[in-house]
Please model this.
Amino acid sequence: MNCEILSVGTELLLGEIANLDAQIISQGLSEQGIDVFYHTVVGDNPERLKKALDTARQRAGIIITTGGLGPTADDLTKETIAAAFGRRLVMDPVQQKRLHERMGARMTPNNEKQAVLPEGCTVLENDWGTAPGCAFEAQGCHVIMLPGPPRECEPMFRYRALPYLESLREGVIRSRYVKIFGMGESEMESRLSYLMNTLKNPTAAPYAKEGECLVRVTAKAADEKQALALCEPVVQEVCSVLGDVVYGVDVQSLEQVVVEGLRSRGLHVAVAESCTGGLIARRITDIPGASEVFGCGLVTYSNEMKNKLLGVSNETLAQFGAVSKETALEMARGVRRVSGADVGVGVTGIAGPGGGSAEKPVGLFYAAVSFEGGEQVIERLRRNATRERTRLYASSCALDLVRRAVLL
Amino acid sequence: MNCEILSVGTELLLGEIANLDAQIISQGLSEQGIDVFYHTVVGDNPERLKKALDTARQRAGIIITTGGLGPTADDLTKETIAAAFGRRLVMDPVQQKRLHERMGARMTPNNEKQAVLPEGCTVLENDWGTAPGCAFEAQGCHVIMLPGPPRECEPMFRYRALPYLESLREGVIRSRYVKIFGMGESEMESRLSYLMNTLKNPTAAPYAKEGECLVRVTAKAADEKQALALCEPVVQEVCSVLGDVVYGVDVQSLEQVVVEGLRSRGLHVAVAESCTGGLIARRITDIPGASEVFGCGLVTYSNEMKNKLLGVSNETLAQFGAVSKETALEMARGVRRVSGADVGVGVTGIAGPGGGSAEKPVGLFYAAVSFEGGEQVIERLRRNATRERTRLYASSCALDLVRRAVLL
Model:
């Protein structure tokens, strides 16, 4: 059974927002092995919505709509779809009560509209906003309606729509994610091709994103426990084949792994940044509770500041330059010293677009780490990368250095 | 004449990427007064692409496709569309030569396919990648094909597709953008409603985004010069009505205005951050050439680092707390002193989700600026905002403080 995602909202057609809902839902359906053949976006216009719905019904067994469930006169998804499938709309007293509790004094007569739902539908309770979703089957087609704002749509899809879809079939599909930094996608694929090409259940598939890559291991089984048990040996094998380029399984991000690893060991990190300009500090402090592990961050662009704040020697700067292994190391040592942190990180480089030379081209950077057990420094060159991508990659290299130095 | 955007790519249906192309193109068409009634996404599948194309032809006078112009066997947009409109595909010798020049030794026989174009089409040269786009009219429908990667699609749309669309009609449409920080959208709208509700050419329309808002002034005229001349008095009036909450006209961002303003005055700025965790430094150093104005950035989470690196007094920290006007001011003064910069900025607050109290709730922050002419500090509270949004808003407030302190 294939699915079409039908997103409703004039703001999408005006380009005010990107269709992130369709991306989130597509990812989730792909993991469940449900094919998506079309996305359609239509404005808050009942005639065109009706036409788009008629087209979708002819080619999809599941239609997931996003948007148009709100309280205003523009919000017409439920009305249009219920009419198209010959369903009456009725007030749901449970949802009406929930709405009143949630909105309190802000409740207006308009808002009641959100508790009006197609007769006999499965109500998808919304714990992340005011408009409930709903699902029903009619004329051989499953229709699931979700609210539009991504902060509501994402959890509504994950915790409401996916269980509904699972209830339609036998068994469950579960995925696990092996996250990798420091190995290219093609090398990873060639090392794992013997697995990827032969496995049937679970399957193993590679993905690349923003300088990182990952392997998704997906199994189908009668229940969640059995599905995860099928995945487990493959996850173990992927980790064992790839070794320490694997930074985590089922983890959010490199910075999360670093922050949690430092926290569990009671260590503090301090960061001295040049070309990354605060990005490493920002990524670490993006993680709630980072204050327990983050000593301080210093962003020093000029030689003067590198010398004055971090104690990088003027001789080093003169002899090797601000973009050098030596300067990166002295930055790492310096920030560790001034902060008293257990781990010091230093990054210096040329993010571009200007400032490059034949000897030290745009995209060149050095990252160093200094800790009780020793110190390390790496050199990397990203040719033809934008300023943004070079900075992002350099910040990831620095975080990975910390992981390798003190968390392995 | 209305337009449909038809995006081709299985990666979109798998949720690997969001459909940013459709957003970019929709924005641009909206500025040109061209209605978009539908977006459709279809995979790299010629049958379904053909069906989607047939549906689009029935309801749109302009079809803009994105994706599927590359060298691989998957890339079938040109082949499918040319067949549907009864056009032959022929090798374009100019594009073939360009490809060879661009690819050099990396050129393979597959790559030649990118120079094969529908007979008699307008070629849209691609200066940002290898696959040229094309445009033609057939059976009352204009078809424009653009490459899929957003870094190619965006300039191809702006510099190739838009001029093609302009050539189809009389006159041009031009927009100017008045950017605003520090006034809510509803207040802005009520102050400008007399203009927005009465103007016909140019028009003035409000937009809100990420804590900022803007007014778009759009005029239609015989040529660009006349269109801009029509906009000018309205832009002036908007600026005069709104006053100093306007941070720029036709500018990229607040950080760009701050960096360029400081550069033109020969001033340096240094930043001390707590809750924003390096975000202000990152935003400043996002701007190429920021090194000319950026002294340094210090990210100090703990009281100890605030005292040791910035000289915030232990008495201030004990009496008023780390999140206080007094601490923000001492951070601004301290970072100015240690860096020798002309302008010092200090930000401290509670980004959440933890760390709040009844007296100092999550979302509370202080931003201070210290400069030769004096100092200023503000208090703001964003209730119910996420950690990410609070940090972004606090960083914008700090940048705006710098603008108001030294650039007005």
Chain B has three domains: 3-167, 172-249, 254-407. Chain B touches chain A through 70 residues (CB under 8 Å). The CA atoms of residues 37 and 145 of chain B lie 18 Å apart.
